[in-house]
Design a protein that fits this description.
With about 100 residues, chain A is an alpha+beta fold. In chain A, a hairpin with a 2-residue loop joins strand 1 and strand 2. Chain B is globular, with a radius of gyration of 32 Å. The chains are: A alpha+beta (about 100), B alpha/beta (about 675), C alpha/beta (about 450).
Chain lengths: ~100, ~675, ~450
């Protein structure tokens, strides 16, 4: 498959037709993405200024703590969140300093 | 560059030195203590360093790719890597730089894990400073490295297998199947080792001797395998690919014509070690019917030297040992094990006649005809106790140390299944016999072994669990008791209740000990672990190889194993030999002495200092009509020990890649103030 | 992918498969190594440190992965499934499907720009689902090959990855490709899976967040793990009381797993030691029936753990439930004094056993033993031979074993395989001598 010659116009069309082909999974994943964006927003907002523990974040946004931890682990891996010390037996997490674009 | 005298041995190449310095996190092993980024930053400022990087693990494919890329794209021509011990991954990185087109000896490995982060876990500052110094020293050396070629030597496609038990036989067969000749040397007059002393083998319940005979048939049918029995290794020299071996072989003592008459005439008897000294045999003997070779042999160790009377005439048996010389490329150590011999009085052994070992019990059972009851020491056996972990899992302060002051703290891994297997057999043959297994943990780990444990439970074998700190006691019963022996034990399956039981027989499930092979160990310069078994080079990277190249391990010489495991290990050893000798040549590292002809004036001090045979010699050359004496190295025989370097009054001799000049540069770098190192360069 | 011929096809790129492939390739045999995952490394690459030496696992595994990738005699086939196998004159004709990566493997440099651009997070199986990665990603930092793979089932086809890729490697239209490998022999090294957490209903059936499997703990202890430290997955608490339940899913007739998985005692003890190092204040309890530390140096390891203060309690764990603080409560019958007690811990690790990996056995038409692992008809004579001539089995495909035993088994399978090839090669001049000097 040679994609190098595919122009921008046909690229858009190709993606569109592919999206139709994979309609079911694309729709499902789009729903997932909305949920993830929501999660990311609420978590990051809560810990933008003050570092918090996972149970604290979970209580504030009303989500189960194991789910929050999963997001925290993901955000930490991709540099969105950093660990900043501990509160009792729980590590504290804070939004990483956003790098200037 | 600092004003440093460079010895003439290093011929700095005309191209400019461009060093890449790589500090590895070792997945946290180093970076949890050493601040690797700081090390890289410091090194990056030092002379000739073009790039200094860190990586979570440079040994990974992606890490190696970084180094390769730097060599290709930045023109790096010297590489310094600070990581684990060189024994682990020096070779890995030699391959990396080779792939990138650089001579593999233009790379220097600095151990900052074993020599730094692991030993200074609580001093990150100090460890970081030390890492910088070690790396600076590595850099100082790397700048003086010159390209070298490994020494390539023809390798003899011939292997010596020491030991004719199941592991040695399997290794011999598998090596022969790879197109490599084999000489198999066995100390005793017969092949088979310990295996024929077993009757049936778990978990398949096959006849041990049938299995063994099949293997022996395959081995003897193989033309490229030469079997030498009643022989021992008495001399060794050389190196991987070219070991010169001397064997001493004893006479068999009898031959086809005289055999039967001599056997008949022989009256002298000696304890039969095949039956663990429970019975006697003649000094001209076959251990069991169907043994290989089938010809009887004379037991020279026990033969009293008196002539036999054959047809009314005296006949002298005579051992005329002779030497056999051979050259082999590799050696397989398949020297096997001995069952642990309990000391006198240990659980009543060698004091109470009712106490025997499990290997002895197997021999006893083999001698009871089918359908007949179990009797021992003249009485019927109704109650029998098997004690596990005798000579295994011993604890300091609880078990009495052995002659060498040590206890056997390892698990012998076969005894649990072997005991249960034997117990099931006995319950089937003697349905009225009560069997009690006194154990600590039942370790039926292997495939099909747990099934044996279940079968034993279903067969009403009783279990009593003791603690390793509270060993069972075995005592003679008072006269008039219902049983000859008393066993006392605290049973932790019934809340630590003290039990006393009268029994007719006590069987000690003894562990495995390595064969006594001190002479071989010394001769081959190989190592043993604290458990006294032969030690592999690395349990995961080189699990059947020894640290001496060309010597591999097969079977229980390395540690306790069952038959299946011994076979696997033996085949693995064969694979390693095939890789080593398959190409018909071996490579030795070029770290050998080299003479600087311009400085050597023939003092001969080096020859005197040299401890290796044929490594260095004085030769006379004719130059400009004058005769000049000079030292000449034979690289294949040189081990690079450096004794000659110290002896030479003219600094005319050096070990390649470890020259005096390089050492001096390293020492200077290590001892220098760090700011001074930096200053010195700018 | 063009069809090609080899001397041996190794199925499975875990430690056993890699070692078998290396031992055969080092002898000059043309070897293909096929793995259904997008990277080789198997289970071993996900471990933290290995017993009894406590070597870091990646120090042992990653260089082996690299050697496999660079070996001139090894053809690496990742992200490939076996489709069918037919006996042929000179061995076997194996049909293999290259699953679409949606990334051109020749163009991808492994720069991971796509991964950072992708908006979707999905559970990362290499972290047992407890960490995340993106729908397009390089599986992990030391993966071999370093090629991205896109998960089409979790993709919205936004095209961001394609746009950001500096080498135009992303190709949404890739299709599965079938090709054939003609091989003289096959080495099956398809490995194991853990008994699933869900299997043990009385231990929470996988519903208790703070009852985890041992491979999860391996990830917590590994420097590249999801949290970078040991935390309990329920709420991110650093546990101060951790318990191991041995034989959870082995020696268990109710699960049909009647055998001993032989590694669980050692990995529990090892993890206990590593946790002691990471969390010096933590109390660690191991509930067991028999401790089976039978390998070389293992008993000493057990004794060291006892000396370090790891608590060994002989007892049968009847059930585990959770209190209102998410703490697992272990109901255990203490066999040494007969009492039944309940003990509360922060985190419980079920020492789950090994079950065979699903897959290849069926396609290869190999009979299984009662334990569902590949049957070996003559273990005491030919420990790596299957019932089909020319097909050999190694590692945990033939039953539970630890890394040392797998490596030895792999070399042993290599010896059996090469002997078979030599005996059946009809005068053909394989193996070829290696041209390059190999410094190994």
């Amino acid at each position: 498959m040679s994609d190098e010659q595919v122009s921008n116009v046909s690229r858009g069309e190709m993606l569109k037709s592919l999206r139709e082909m994979h309609a079911a999974s694309v729709e499902q994943t789009q729903a997932l993405l909305r949920e993830q964006k929501q999660m990311q927003q609420s978590i990051c907002q809560i810990i933008r200024e003050t570092p918090k523990t996972v149970p604290e974040i979970a209580a504030e946004i009303g989500k189960p703590s194991h789910e929050v931890l999963w997001y925290i682990a993901a955000f930490k891996k991709y540099g969105i969140v950093v660990e900043t010390g501990k509160c009792g037996d729980y590590p504290l997490y804070q939004r990483a300093k956003e790098t200037q674009a | 560059m600092p004003e440093k005298k460079i010895s003439n041995n290093e011929t700095p190449s005309s191209e400019k030195v461009r060093v890449g310095v790589y500090t590895c996190h070792c997945g946290g092993n180093i970076s949890h203590v050493v601040q690797c980024e700081r090390v890289a930053k410091m090194l990056g400022k030092m002379p000739d360093v073009v790039i200094a990087r860190t990586d979570p693990s440079f040994c990974s494919d992606s890490g190696q790719a970084v180094i390769e890329q730097d060599i290709k794209e930045l023109g790096i021509n010297r590489v310094v890597i600070g990581a684990c011990a060189p024994s682990l991954h020096e070779q890995t990185f030699r391959n990396t730089v080779t792939r990138a087109g650089l001579n593999p000896y233009l790379y220097h490995h600095v151990g900052i894990r074993e020599q730094d982060s692991w030993v200074h876990p609580n001093d990150p500052e100090g460890a970081t400073d030390k890492a910088i110094r070690l790396m600076a020293a590595g850099l100082a050396k790397a700048r003086l490295l010159t390209p070298l070629d490994p020494i390539r030597l023809k390798a003899e496609k011939h292997t010596l297998v020491i030991g004719g038990g199941v592991a040695g036989l399997r290794a011999a067969l598998d090596i022969a199947h790879q197109g490599i000749r084999v000489t198999l040397v066995e100390k005793s007059p017969f092949l088979g080792g310990r295996m024929p002393q077993l009757e049936s083998v778990f978990p398949t319940d096959e006849e041990a001797r049938q299995l063994l005979n099949k293997l022996i048939q395959e081995v003897t049918a193989e033309e490229s395998i030469k079997i030498i029995t009643q022989a021992e290794v008495t001399g060794l020299s050389g190196y991987v690919g070219n070991y010169n071996i001397s064997l001493t072989q004893h006479s068999r003592g009898v031959d086809g014509v005289t055999t039967e008459a001599l056997m008949a005439a022989c009256t002298q008897e000696t304890p039969d070690e095949f039956n663990y000294n429970l019975t006697q045999r003649k000094v001209i003997y076959q251990p069991y019917p169907g043994c290989y070779p089938p010809t009887p042999a004379v037991d020279w160790e026990h033969y009293d030297g008196k002539p036999l009377q054959v047809n009314g005439k005296p006949f002298h048996l005579k051992d005329e040992p002779h030497n056999i010389e051979l050259t082999v490329g590799a050696i397989v150590m398949a020297t096997g094990f001995d069952p642990y011999e309990p000391r006198q009085g240990e659980y009543g052994y060698d004091q109470i006649p009712e106490v025997v070992t499990l290997p002895q019990l197997i021999r006893i059972l083999s001698r009871i005809p089918k359908g007949e009851p179990l009797t021992w020491n003249g009485h019927a056996v109704r109650d029998l106790v098997l004690i596990h972990c005798v000579g295994s899992r011993e604890l300091d302060g609880v078990n009495q140390p052995q002659a060498d002051g040590q206890v056997n703290n390892y698990c012998s891994r076969v005894c649990c299944t072997a005991s249960l297997h034997t117990a099931i057999d006995m319950r089937q043959r003697f349905p009225n016999l009560n069997i009690y297994e006194l154990y600590q943990d039942i370790r039926t780990y292997g495939r099909g072994h747990e099934e044996i444990y279940r079968r034993a439970q279903n067969a009403m074998v009783r279990f009593v669990r003791y603690h390793g700190t509270e060993l069972p006691e075995v005592l003679p019963a008072p006269a008039g008791d219902t049983h000859p022996v008393l066993v006392r034990v605290k049973d932790y399956l019934t809340r630590g209740k003290e039990i006393e039981m009268g029994v007719d027989m006590v069987v000690l499930a003894v562990g495995m000990m390595p064969r006594q092979i001190d002479d071989l160990v010394k001769m081959l310069k190989i190592s043993r672990g604290t458990d006294r078994f032969l030690l592999e080079a690395h349990p995961k990277l080189r699990p059947v190889e020894m640290s001496v190249r060309g010597i591999v391990l097969a079977g229980t010489a390395q540690g306790p194993m069952n038959i299946q495991e011994s076979l696997s290990a033996a085949s693995a050893a064969a694979a390693k030999v095939a890789v080593l000798l398959g190409q018909g040549q071996v490579e030795l590292p070029p770290f050998v002495a080299r003479v600087d002809e311009s400085k050597c004036n023939g003092t001969g001090a080096c020859v005197e200092a040299c401890r290796e045979e044929g490594a260095i010699a004085m030769q006379t050359f004719k130059e400009n009509g004058r005769e000049i004496r000079r030292a000449v190295i034979t690289p294949a025989n040189c081990t690079g020990c450096g004794a000659c370097v110290g002896a030479c009054p003219n600094r005319a001799i050096d070990v390649q890649a470890w020259t005096l000049g390089q050492y001096e540069a390293m020492v200077d770098a290590i001892t220098m103030e760090i700011p001074a190192i930096l200053e010195n360069v700018s | 992918m063009e069809n090609f011929n080899v001397d041996t096809l190794v199925i499975g790129g875990g430690i056993a498969g890699m070692q078998a492939a290396l031992d055969l390739a080092d002898q000059g045999f043309q070897t293909a190594l096929v793995d259904h995952e997008p990277t080789i490394g198997g289970k071993m690459i996900t471990l933290s440190k290995v017993f009894p030496t406590l070597d870091c696992c990646s120090c042992i595994t990653t260089p082996k992965m690299s050697s496999v990738a660079h070996h001139p005699n090894i053809q690496l086939l990742t992200y490939c499934d076996l489709q069918s196998i037919q006996e042929s004159d000179s061995g076997f004709r194996v049909a293999i499907v290259q699953k679409p990566r949606y990334v051109d493997a020749h163009k991808c440099t492994g720069c991971r720009k796509c991964e950072y651009e992708c908006p979707i997070l999905i559970p990362n199986p290499y972290d047992r689902g407890l960490g995340a990665y993106h729908a397009i990603r390089v599986p992990f930092s030391t993966a071999v090959p370093q090629t991205a793979v896109l998960d089409m089932d979790n993709c919205i086809l936004c095209g961001k990855c394609e746009k950001v890729c500096p080498t135009q490697a992303v190709t949404f239209t890739q299709k599965p490709e079938t090709f054939e490998v003609q091989t003289r022999t096959i080495v099956l090294a398809s490995g194991f899976e853990l008994t699933p957490l869900e299997a043990k209903k009385e231990y929470g059936g996988g519903l208790l967040h703070n009852v985890i499997d041992p491979l999860m703990m391996e990830r917590f202890l590994a420097p590249t793990g999801p949290y970078g430290r040991v935390l309990r997955p329920g709420d991110g608490k650093e546990p101060t009381s951790i318990a191991y339940v041995q034989c959870a899913g082995s020696r268990d007739q109710s699960l049909g797993v009647e055998y001993c998985s032989r590694v669980c005692c050692m990995y529990a003890i090892k993890q206990a030691m590593l946790i002691s190092g990471a969390l010096p204040m933590a109390e660690i309890t191991i509930y067991y029936m028999d401790i089976r530390t039978f390998g070389k140096g293992y008993e000493q390891f057990y004794q060291n753990a006892q000396a370090m203060g790891v608590e060994f309690i002989r007892g049968k764990v009847a059930a585990i439930h959770e209190d209102d603080q998410q703490n697992p409560v272990v109901k255990v019958e203490l066999t040494e004094d007969g009492r039944v007690v309940e003990r509360t811990h922060d985190l419980v690790v079920l020492s789950l056993g090994m079950v065979p990996s699903p897959g290849s056995a069926g396609i290869l038409e190999l009979p299984l033993g009662d334990d569902k692992f590949i049957s070996v008809p003559a273990p005491n004579a030919r420990p790596c031979h299957t019932t089909r001539p020319g097909i050999f089995v190694t590692g945990t495909a033939m039953g539970p074993m630890d890394i040392v035993d797998s490596i030895i088994s792999a070399s042993s399978a290599a010896a059996a395989t090469s002997a078979y090839i030599r005996a059946h090669q009809n005068g053909q001049a394989s193996p070829k001598p290696q041209e390059e000097a190999v410094y190994a």
